[in-house]
């Protein structure tokens, strides 16, 4: 979950939850979601986490082909001085992944309030989500 660069990198950060070990990310200076915390976790005890966009992308990397996809272990590098980016790595065998993918069903969206109103009025995002 990459965040915007700039002020979010200075005022936000990533950390690991004390009790759960979940990855927590915040962007305190974000105008869209100030003082909110996103959390990520997996049920694999051997899972890896990371919280640095520079490490995620790698040298000369891009969002199309981030360097961390090729790594077998994530560094666990977290902190307030980094450009925040939440990375969670869970290892699955091919058979287990195929079974989970086959059994997966998308959740029905239950929009309420302003988001529901906006969704009824806006066009497709591919057209610019024009009202």
Description:
The protein has a three-stranded antiparallel beta sheet. The chain has a two-stranded antiparallel ribbon with strand order 4-5. The two termini are 27 Å apart. The chain contains four helices and five strands, in the order H-E-E-E-E-H-E-H-H. It is globular, with a radius of gyration of 17 Å. It has a domain at 7-95. Residues 6-10 have low confidence and may be disordered. With 131 residues, the protein is of the alpha+beta class.
Describe the structure in brief.
The protein has helices at residues 7-11, 53-57, 94-103, 113-121, and strands spanning 13-16, 23-26, 37-40, 48-50, 87-89.
Instruction: Tell me, rounded to a whole number, the average pLDDT.
Output: 77
Query: From N to C, what is the helix and strand string?
Result: HEEEEHEHH
| Total number of strands | 5
Helix content percent band: 10-25%
How does the helix and strand content classify structurally? Answer: alpha+beta
Q: What kind of sheet is the major sheet?
A: 3 strands, antiparallel
Strand content: 5-15%
Spatial gap, N to C terminus: 27 Å
If you compute it from the alpha carbons, what radius of gyration comes out, rounded to the nearest whole angstrom?
A: 17 Å
What is the overall shape?
Answer: globular
Which sequence of strands runs across the widest sheet?
1-2-3
List unreliable stretches of 5+ residues. 6-10
Question: Helical element count?
Answer: 4
């Amino acid at each position: 979950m990459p965040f915007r660069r700039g002020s979010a990198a200075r005022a936000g950060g990533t950390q690991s939850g004390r009790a759960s070990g979940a990855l927590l990310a915040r962007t305190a200076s974000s105008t869209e979601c100030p003082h909110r915390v996103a959390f990520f976790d997996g049920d694999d005890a051997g899972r890896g986490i990371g919280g640095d966009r520079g490490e995620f992308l790698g040298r000369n990397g891009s969002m199309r082909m981030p360097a961390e996809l090729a790594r077998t272990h994530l560094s666990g590098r977290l902190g307030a001085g980094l450009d925040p980016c939440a990375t969670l790595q869970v290892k699955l065998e091919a058979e287990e992944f195929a079974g989970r993918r086959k059994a997966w069903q998308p959740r029905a969206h239950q929009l309420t309030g302003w988001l529901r109103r906006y969704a009824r009025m806006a066009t497709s995002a591919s057209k610019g989500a024009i009202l």
